[in-house]
Specification:
single chain; alpha/beta; Rossmann fold; 2 domains; six-stranded mixed β-sheet; four-stranded antiparallel β-sheet; 11 helices; binds adenosine-5'-triphosphate; binds magnesium ion
Length: 308
């Protein structure tokens, strides 16, 4: 649904995006992650035809963004990082204004606006002014706005920034709902762990270059970080340690606190094998859990030391 090919954007001497390649499938939620100045907004603005690339191009649903701007703008909903100021405009007026801008007929506007208000849970706020909404509500209004013309693709620039945990969860639920509706979503953030629970795939960008792109669970092997699991048995811990140490796919077995930490030799987890080995020896397994990859550590590792 989104395909970026050798995309480069120069601002004078500065290369903000350098030879970027990326494919996002229909129905995916793709997390676009990078620190300040990495080139996220620049890439997104090119995708939504607000900026011309210096070299390369991108396609939305097969349409070249540099040649079919008008058609592409019908297909995408873009939520910018800053909303702008709308003095004295009420929430429903704001949405009706955008409905008119998208050329939606006057008699259809009300039902469309009511629909997006309901979806974003803003119905009760429709008559208050936009400027008096809280940050979280403003972000939801931003989402309501991009949904007005029922786009297939949503490009959301940091929709969760500045939100409290509850508002963040609400946005996450809303994004899941939108995915159920069949939308393809590209969403940017500084924080890898913020997107962890909603994204199918992530791309990590640093100084305009993609340093990693793939599934979240592929980051660890990519970084050469070995997978670990924690195992606890009810009794006979020494027997468990002995049995696990003998397995060829396991490189290290250590006792940590009240559990056993198991490191896999080639980064591949074989939890089934551990469970079978212990159960076959009549050991009572209390828990067997993967050690969480500390995403933000992975992010720092991926982006450290790259100097522009
Ligand atoms: N209009 C512009 N003119 C000149 N340089 C620009 C312009 N817009 C962005 N840049 C530069 O391009 C680089 C990438 O900026 P961009 O806004 O795409 O980053 P970002 O990843 O969105 O960062 P942030 O997380 O801070 O939003 C930065 O070095 C920025 O200073
Ligand atoms: Mg930005």
């Amino acid at each position: 649904m989104i395909r970026i090919e050798n995309l480069t954007k120069d601002y004078g001497d500065l290369t903000a995006v350098e030879n970027l390649n990326l494919t996002i499938k229909q129905g995916d939620i793709f997390g676009f992650i990078g620190p300040n100045g990495a080139g996220k907004t620049t890439t997104m603005r090119i995708l939504v035809t607000l900026l011309e690339p210096t070299r390369g191009t991108a396609f939305i649903d097969g349409l070249d963004v540099t040649r079919h701007g008008k058609k592409v703008r019908r297909l995408v909903g873009y939520m910018p990082d800053f909303m702008g100021v709308y003095d004295d405009l009420k929430v429903f007026e704001y949405l009706e204004f955008f409905a008119a801008a998208f050329g939606i007929e006057r008699q259809k506007r009300k039902s469309i606006v009511d629909g997006v208000l309901e979806l974003t849970d803003l119905t009760s706020k429709q008559s208050v002014t936009v400027d008096s909404l809280s940050r979280g509500m403003q972000q939801r209004l931003g989402l309501a706005r991009v949904l007005i013309h029922d786009p297939k693709v949503l490009i959301l620039d940091e929709p969760a920034s500045g939100l409290d945990p509850r508002a963040r969860i609400e946005i996450r639920e809303l994004l899941r709902e939108l995915r159920r509706m069949g939308k393809t979503i590209m969403i940017s953030s500084h924080i890898l762990s913020e997107l962890e629970e909603i994204c199918d795939h992530v791309g990590i960008i640093e100084h305009g270059q993609m340093v990693f792109s793939g599934r979240l669970d592929e980051i660890r092997p990519h970084l050469g970080i070995q997978s670990k699991v924690r195992v606890k048995v009810a009794e006979n811990r020494d027997t468990a340690v002995e049995l696990l140490s003998a397995l060829p796919s396991i490189s290290k077995v250590e006792i940590v606190a009240d559990y056993i930490s198991v490191t896999f030799a080639d980064g591949k987890e074989c939890n089934g094998l551990i469970a079978r080995t212990l159960v076959n020896a009549d050991l009572d397994v209390v828990f067997l859990q993967p050690e969480q990859l500390k995403l933000d550590d992975a992010f720092l590792q991926l982006t450290k030391g790259i100097v522009h």
